[in-house]
Design a protein that fits this description.
The chain is α+β, with helices and mostly antiparallel strands and about 270 residues long. About 55% of the residues lie in helices and about 5% in strands. It is built from 10 helices and 4 strands, in the order βαβαββαααααααα. Helix 1 links the parallel strand 1 and strand 2.
C-alpha cells in the first residue's frame, strides 16, 4: 500500500503486514486475504524490499529481531508484533478465525496442523531456500551443495506427495480441509521449478497446488505486495515463450544432473 520506502509503521488500527513477495511472505498475505474474504478483516501492508535490506534497519528489527520478513503488527492488540511465518499463521487463526475455517478445534487435528507447519518451517522452506541459491543464484557452481539441497528438496516433495495420495489437503478428517497447514507449504511448492524440481513428477502435489491456486483469496495474497514472478506456471510459460530462458534452464539442469552423477545421488523418499 505504501508507495515510498518504508521508514516505520503507517497504520493505527487493524493488522499491518510488513512483507515481500517470497514464499514466506505469501504465507501471511494469503491467510490475511482469506480472513478478509471470510470475515471482512481488513489489513494494511508495506513492501519491505529485501534487496535494499530494509529488514535490517533499526525500526524494523525492533519488531523482528531476526531481521527477516514477514512481520505483522496487531494495532488492535496493543501494537503486538509477530514474526516468523508459522507463528503468524497460528496467531491470526487464534485471534481472528472464530469459526475455524482455516484452523482446527479437535486436539489431534490441531497437533497434526502444527506438525505439518513445523515440517515446512524446519524442512521444506530451509532446504528449498538453499536449493534455490545453489541451483540458480550462486555465482559459483558448487556440485556438492547443488545436489545436496536440490536432492533433499526432492525428498521433501516426495513426503508431501505421499501425504496427499488419498487426500485433498494435509490435515482434517476424510480427504482433509484447507487450512494453515496447507498455506504454510503452498508458497514453497508453488515455486518448486525455480529450485530445479520437476513438480509435475509429483502428481498429488501438482493437483493440490492447482486446487489451492483456484481460490480467489490465494491469488490476491500472491499479489501482495506485487504480482508474483516465479510461480511454477509462470516459470513454465516463460520457458515456452523465451528461448534464451529455456537455454539457460537447460544449462542449469545439466549442472544438476552432473552433480548428482558425481556424488551418486539416488532419489529416495522418505
Amino acid at each position: 500500500m505504501a508507495s515510498t520506502r518504508p521508514t516505520g509503521l503507517i497504520a493505527d488500527k487493524g493488522i499491518e503486514l510488513l512483507t515481500f513477495g517470497t514464499p514466506n511472505g505469501h504465507k501471511a498475505s494469503i491467510l490475511l486475504e482469506e480472513l478478509k474474504e471470510t470475515y471482512g478483516k481488513e489489513y494494511t501492508f508495506q513492501a519491505i524490499s529485501i534487496m535494499e535490506n530494509i529488514q535490517k534497519e533499526p525500526w524494523y528489527t525492533k519488531l523482528c529481531p531476526n531481521g527477516r520478513i514477514p512481520v505483522i503488527v496487531d494495532h488492535d492488540r496493543n501494537d503486538f508484533a509477530v514474526f516468523e511465518g508459522l507463528a503468524i499463521l497460528a496467531y491470526l487463526t487464534r485471534h481472528y478465525d472464530p469459526e475455524h475455517k482455516f484452523s482446527f478445534t479437535d486436539p489431534d487435528e490441531v497437533s497434526l496442523a502444527e506438525q505439518w507447519m513445523a515440517w515446512q518451517h524446519g524442512g521444506l522452506g530451509p532446504m528449498q531456500g538453499q536449493g534455490n541459491h545453489f541451483y540458480r543464484l550462486a555465482k559459483e557452481r558448487i556440485p556438492y551443495a547443488t545436489q545436496r539441497y536440490v536432492g533433499e528438496t526432492e525428498r521433501l516433495f516426495g513426503i508431501l506427495d505421499a501425504r496427499l495420495a488419498d487426500r485433498d489437503y494435509l490435515v482434517g478428517s476424510g480427504r482433509g480441509k484447507y487450512s494453515i497447514a496447507d498455506i504454510a507449504s503452498f508458497g514453497w511448492a508453488n515455486g518448486g521449478y525455480f529450485c530445479g524440481i520437476d513438480v509435475k513428477s509429483f502428481p498429488n502435489v501438482w493437483k493440490w497446488l492447482e486446487r489451492i491456486n483456484e481460490r480467489p483469496a490465494v491469488q490476491k495474497g500472491l499479489s501482495v505486495p506485487a504480482p508474483p514472478r516465479i510461480t511454477n506456471k509462470l516459470f513454465l510459460q516463460k520457458l515456452e515463450d523465451d528461448p534464451e530462458a529455456a537455454q539457460k534452464e537447460q544449462e542449469l539442469r545439466g549442472h544438476l544432473d552432473r552433480a548428482k552423477e558425481q556424488y551418486n545421488y539416488k532419489y529416495a523418499s522418505p
